[in-house]
Amino acid sequence: MSAVREGLPEGRYGRSADERADRGLKVLGAVLGAALLAVVGWFGYDYVAGQKISAEVIKFDLSSEDRVAVHLEVRKERDARGYCTLRALAEDGGEVGRKEVRFDGAATRLDEIVTVRTTAEATSAQLLGCTSE
């Protein structure tokens, strides 16, 4: 005599415990994913909208051994005051010169050639960033 065990009919008595747990994890993952996306979006918006000053190095001239001429373009709000920091780099990547360029005027766009003095021959110039006050 063999015992045949009959199970409960499929789907008749609701979801199994595994299916309920899987659904709960999916809902939790979706909520946490949406929250993370909202936080990243907020920080991104705050970074872009909060920038009163933006700048870029258009080009630089390395024609002298003791200085670098940097063409710097700054865009800012009319009332923004602050400074941008430039640095000159040697071939090995070491810093050989640094200069802070201040701007306080009402102009919204500045286009200047800035001279950065160096302690050795530079091979590159870099904008480290700008800070508003």
Largest sheet: 3 strands, antiparallel
Termini gap: 91 Å
Globally, the shape reads elongated
CATH class of the largest domain: Mainly Beta
Oligomer: single chain
The CATH topology annotation of the largest domain reads as Immunoglobulin-like
Please tell me how large the radius of gyration is. Answer: 30 Å
How would you state the average pLDDT, rounded?
Answer: 86
SSE ordering: HEEEEEE
Number of domains: 2
CATH architecture of the largest domain: Sandwich
Residue share in helix: 10-25%
Helix run count? 1
- Could you list the spans in which at least 5 consecutive residues all have pLDDT below 50? none
Number of strands: 6
The fraction of residues assigned to DSSP E strands is: 35-45%
Biggest sheet, strands in spatial order?
A: 1-2-5
Written account of the structure:
There is one protein chain. The chain is an alpha+beta fold and 133 residues long. It folds into two domains: 15-50; 53-132, Immunoglobulin-like (Sandwich). It contains one helix and six strands; from the N terminus they run αββββββ. The chain has one helix spanning 17-49; strands at residues 53-61, 67-76, 82-89, 95-103, 109-117, 124-132. A three-stranded antiparallel sheet has the order 1-2-5, with no helix packed on it. A three-stranded antiparallel sheet has the order 4-3-6, with no helix packed on it. The protein is elongated, with a radius of gyration of 30 Å. The N and C termini lie far apart (91 Å). 12% of the residues are buried.
